[in-house]
Design goal:
Distance between the termini: 31 Å
Number of domains: 1
Structural class: alpha+beta
Number of strands: 7
Helix content: 25-40%
Radius of gyration: 19 Å
Number of helices: 7
Order of helices and strands: HEHHEEEEEHHEHH
Shape: globular
Length: 188
């Protein structure tokens, strides 16, 4: 298995406009729009694919009880930086918005909702997590401070947040490995 195949099996893609290939769409588009030129077929493919994103927002209209934090590894012209953004609504559908040129949202093998967002300066990598019930404002602020300073570890993140993949997998019918309980982790 090559690295591309491995990458594809490590994720469940929700929606993407990265690497759209007209050849994958050609037969269906030509059947429905035989009069379109090559350029028009390409634009029709992009338009239909964009409509699919609206469908995914409907599918993922899942209201959570806490805000969602988006942790970003941001590619800029002068290097990479860490950052975060809050999605106060706590609704998973609100994760599916981007102001970059191309974006792919997926659930990784660990059950995390992630996105790769390509823009003129590089690629941003986003991790979406929801705050756990009972997390205090001080705990949330400590995590935000660590992210801002570029010092947040996976342990810092998982201590006060949880993954979104379980809710998403229930919608689409795929499976992801169960998270180990704190007792299972302490037995290692």
């Amino acid at each position: 298995m090559n690295s591309t195949q491995s990458r594809q099996t490590d994720r469940h893609t929700i929606w993407s406009d990265i690497n759209l290939d007209l050849e994958d769409w050609r037969a269906d588009l030509k059947a429905e729009y035989p009069e379109l030129t090559e350029d028009e077929l390409y634009y029709k493919m992009c338009e239909i694919n964009a409509d699919y994103l609206d469908d995914e927002r409907v599918n993922l209209n899942i209201q959570l009880s806490q805000p969602i934090i988006v942790i970003g590894d941001i590619g800029r012209w002068n290097g990479r930086i860490m950052g975060y953004k809050m999605i106060e609504s706590g609704n998973i559908r609100d994760c599916l918005y981007s102001d970059t040129d191309f974006t792919e949202w997926y659930v990784d093998k660990y059950g995390d909702l992630r996105a790769d967002a390509v823009h003129h300066d590089g690629t941003n990598h986003y991790l979406y997590r929801v705050f756990k019930n009972g997390v205090t404002p001080e705990q949330a602020e400590r995590l935000q401070d660590k992210i801002y300073m570029g010092k947040a570890t996976r342990a810092d993140i998982t201590r006060v947040t949880r993954r979104l993949g379980d809710e998403i997998a229930a919608v689409y019918g795929f499976t992801i490995p169960k998270q180990r309980t704190s007792q299972e982790r302490s037995e290692r």
